[in-house]
Design a protein that fits this description.
The chain is an alpha+beta fold and 227 residues long. It has a single domain, classed as HIT family, subunit A (2-Layer Sandwich), CATH 3.30.428. Strands 1-2-3-5-4-7-8-6 form an eight-stranded antiparallel beta sheet. A hairpin with a 5-residue loop joins strand 7 and strand 8. Helix 2 crosses helix 4. It is globular and about 40 Å long. The structure holds zinc ion. Zinc ion binds next to loops. Belongs to the CWF19 family. Pfam families: CwfJ_C_1, CwfJ_C_2. This is Cwf19-like C-terminal domain-containing protein.
Length: 227
């Protein structure tokens, strides 16, 4: 079994909601479980296809994650990209390593027609909030730009380009959701704050079952089963 406890990946004092081993974790939200990561629907999803990828064990961020975890995040990203493409959509991902303690990469499918407005929406929202996002190249890795333990935000657009910042002064915690919920993208601004759109448990179970069904043809984790 995979184990890693680098300096930034210490077990937190209080039980962590995102550690899959936590008995209190909301397991009915889990869509698929791999070797070192799992996919789950977030509380208060932006859309019916909103998922997040989390490490199974307690790891702070992608930058502090070992290669096996990063590789599996990429596998999930590819699989959810294919799933989005099937319905004519494109996948946007983002990670906020700021005032969080457990690795979580959000993945949201948007209409392909909205992708042209995407970069502008991110840039404008950043400017309004008073910080700058820089575009990073395909060949640049997060770990080259930021040290382990240093906070950052990164979004990956459907064309593979990444928008990045590590200036977190006044960074809005709902930034990624705010951009995607805006009128030119998903147009669901009432869902910017996840706490305001938490669903009933029955509805969550229904959506997760639909997600599991839709993800099945793309789910690489099933190939690892030995039976
Ligand atoms: Zn955790």
């Amino acid at each position: 079994m995979f184990h890693y406890d680098g300096p930034r990946n210490k077990q937190p004092q209080a039980p962590c909601w995102f550690c899959l081993s936590n008995v209190d974790a909301e397991k009915h939200l889990v869509v698929s479980v791999g070797n070192s990561c799992y996919a789950a629907m977030p509380k208060g999803p932006l859309t019916n296809e909103h998922v997040m990828i989390l490490s199974i064990g307690h790891i702070q961020s992608q930058v502090s994650a070992p290669v096996a975890v990063r590789d599996e995040i990429e596998k999930f990203k590819s699989a959810f990209t294919l799933m989005a493409n099937k319905t004519g959509k494109a996948l946007v991902t983002f990670e906020r390593n700021f005032r969080t303690q457990h690795l979580q990469v959000q993945m949201v499918a948007i209409d392909k027609a909205s992708t042209r407005a995407l970069k502008g929406a991110f840039m404008n929202s950043a400017a309004l909030a008073g910080f700058e996002l820089v575009t990073i190249g395909h060949d640049e890795h997060l770990s080259d730009l930021v040290n382990e333990g240093c906070p950052y935000f990164v979004a990956e657009l459907p064309d593979g380009s990444k928008l990045f910042t590590r200036s977190m002064k006044g960074f809005p915690l709902q930034f990624g959701r705010e951009v995607l919920a805006s009128a030119p993208i998903l147009d669901c601004e009432e869902k910017i704050d996840w706490k305001k759109c938490v669903l009933e448990k029955e509805k969550e179970i229904e959506l997760v079952n639909k997600l599991k069904e839709a993800f099945k043809p793309f789910d690489f984790t099933a190939e690892d089963d030995s039976d």
